[in-house]
Amino acid sequence: MSDYDDDDDHDMAPNYENMRGMGFICWREIPATDDEDHEDIQLNKKNKNKKKKRKLDAIETEQEIETPIKKVKKKKKKRSNETHMTSTLQIIGENNKDEVETTSNNDTIETAKKVWSDLHVSENIIRSLLEQKFFDPTPIQRLTLPAAIRDRLDIIGAAETGSGKTLAFAIPILTHMNQLLENNQTSYGQFTSLILTPTRELAVQIKSHIQIVCRYTKFKTAVVVGGMSTQKQERLLSQKPEIIVATPGRFWELLQENNEHIIDMSNLRFLAIDETDRMIEKGHFEELEKILNLIKNDNNQLRQKFVFSATLMLQSNIDNEKKKQKKKKDDNQDKLATLISAVGMSAKPKIIDLTKEFGTAETLTEARVNCSLEDKDSYLYYFLTLYPGRTLLFTNSIDCIKRLQSILTILKRNPLPLHAQMEQKQRLTNLEKFSNSDNGLLIATDVAARGLDIPNIKHIIHYQVPRSTELYIHRSGRTARVEREGLSIMFICPEELFLYRKIIKTLNRNEDLQTFPIDSTYLSNLKRRVRLASEISKLHHQVAKVANETNWYHKAAKELDIELDDNIRDVEKAKTANTKDTQKKEIQLRNELDLLLKHPLKYSSSLNISRSYPLLFGDPDQLASRRKNDMTALDELKHRS
Ligand SMILES: Nc1ncnc2c1ncn2[C@@H]1O[C@H](COP(=O)(O)OP(=O)(O)OP(=O)(O)O)[C@@H](O)[C@H]1O
């Protein structure tokens, strides 16, 4: 039984044969993310909270299944960032340098406590929320918590990416679990909560988010996903975790093996499905449906269900004119209806839809680069060279990742790959390295498009135009999270224009995305580097291929205990001679490229450019520090507009 995750790996880019596997380091979970760089904001919380609450109450009353999408104009403005007060708790723990400040911080804490407790959150959870400096619920949390905790309703929730949906279902689950314990309605070691999610990384992340908020409880959380040894997961389950976060494939596998801890679902009181629209897509629904049918068997009326996504209601936005699109819409809505029935939702679930007309976060800036397919790599290298910062690049295929990984590595940009053909340990290690590097570059398939909450990603690059609007929203949503700014930039070649247009239309945009300014004075030099890197990559690949084949012949002959045929030996000799030439050529080109990388990307004063960049060198770290005070890609767009 295979575990499924988002690994649609069709290739739109030229094919490139698989490179050899990478070394695997260790199994480590991604560290809990921390909002360490959130802005300090002192504010009069009481008034703001009241105001915000009034606004949200208004939104809530407007919610209707039939009209799920609230039309709001997308404002490209910074919202006040009430939630991110970094220093308050630290200051309170420090010496009383400034009594007034401490008093006001104490007030802030007290206000925050009251806000959470008014939403019926239990005390031990509030304590960990405040430690995280989560002083204010996000809008989706503010609307979900009372309905889920006080009214015990099933919830269907949709809100933009990075809006805190995980805690919107995790807090009610944990609060109820606390209450059940207090009332002796459950005991430790009972399988009480199941959270299903489409990707392994997301499962690991949800677990770490849950662990942070249940720090002051004794609940145990386990992750059950493919790519980990089944024995290890059985060992984890033998510790009787109360909460399980799982991908459906592996969970179903363990159910079929009658795993003792999970097979008895009579105590399963909470069921959450995250990234629901992905879970109901073709090819992914089967195992989920089987699990849900099994869960539903006992007809437990006390079980509370949560169904969440950032793009759950998006389909209603699709233009009905096109028959094909209409069919897709109907299919998905049918599936959603099937899911809701399969989950066994109560007759009147609470529907909270905060998705915006424009689909993406308000703090997201979107742009495009138009270029030919041949020039894409050069434009990409241009962007990566001129605008350092944590960047997540998406492609539509694994082959494309392998090609880019090779070229960008040769260009010393150190990309970290992430895709479904990699071992799980390496995937998590790469994510961790990426999260820890200010100038990190992760190149991923859509396996990383949903849910991942990596702090401070500056740029999202759609190296290939995503195949669906939902994917565009989810990919872009890896930046501009919780009201921070971020840039999403789409590289579009003529062959992809139809996909781009479809996305723009589905997103209800009246205008094209703005074009990102490119300073053409850099391009010829950059193109030369990219061309060389690409040639080196091909030569390197040829050599590796011959070496592989030769090894294969020898290994096979040894295993079969036979001598290699003379013909094969002759062919081998010829190939080896060729290989030597290829290697020589590769070394020559590498030397040429090294020289180029040591030289500045000259600014040509003969051209009439409005402003000049400093001289740029190829070393990305050098470059990053040189450009620290220079314009960011976002500044670049603002400067222009
Ligand atoms: N009340 C809060 N105040 C401040 N930060 C919060 C709050 N709630 C959650 N966060 C943080 O916001 C970030 C985004 O949350 P989360 O990953 O749940 O978003 P999401 O809506 O599920 O996004 P996506 O749709 O991309 O999966 C996380 O780092 C989380 O810790």
UniProtKB/TrEMBL annotation:
Protein name stated in the entry: ATP-dependent RNA helicase
Chain ranges for the short sequence motif Q motif as given in the UniProt record: 114-142
Organism ancestry: Eukaryota, Metazoa, Spiralia, Gnathifera, Rotifera
Region Disordered, residue ranges: 35-58
Free-text comment about domains: The Q motif is unique to and characteristic of the DEAD box family of RNA helicases and controls ATP binding and hydrolysis.
E.C. designation(s): 3.6.4.13
Family annotation (Gene3D superfamilies): P-loop containing nucleotide triphosphate hydrolases
UniProt-listed PROSITE patterns: HELICASE_ATP_BIND_1 (PS51192), HELICASE_CTER (PS51194), Q_MOTIF (PS51195)
Residue ranges constituting the Helicase ATP-binding domain according to the UniProt record: 146-330
Catalytic activities: ATP + H2O = ADP + phosphate + H(+)
Helicase C-terminal domain: residues covered: 379-524
Top-rank taxon: Eukaryota
Function per UniProt: RNA helicase.
Family the UniProt entry places it in: Belongs to the DEAD box helicase family.
InterPro entries: DEAD/DEAH_box_helicase_dom, Helicase_ATP-bd, Helicase_C-like, P-loop_NTPase, RNA_helicase_DEAD_Q_motif
Keywords: ATP-binding, Helicase, Hydrolase, Nucleotide-binding, RNA-binding
Pfam family, one: Helicase_C
Species in which this protein is naturally found: Rotaria sordida
Composition bias, Basic residues: 45-55
Domain DEAD-box RNA helicase Q: from-to ranges: 114-142
Keyword Hydrolase carried by entry: yes
GO molecular function terms noted in the UniProt entry: ATP binding; hydrolase activity; RNA binding; RNA helicase activity
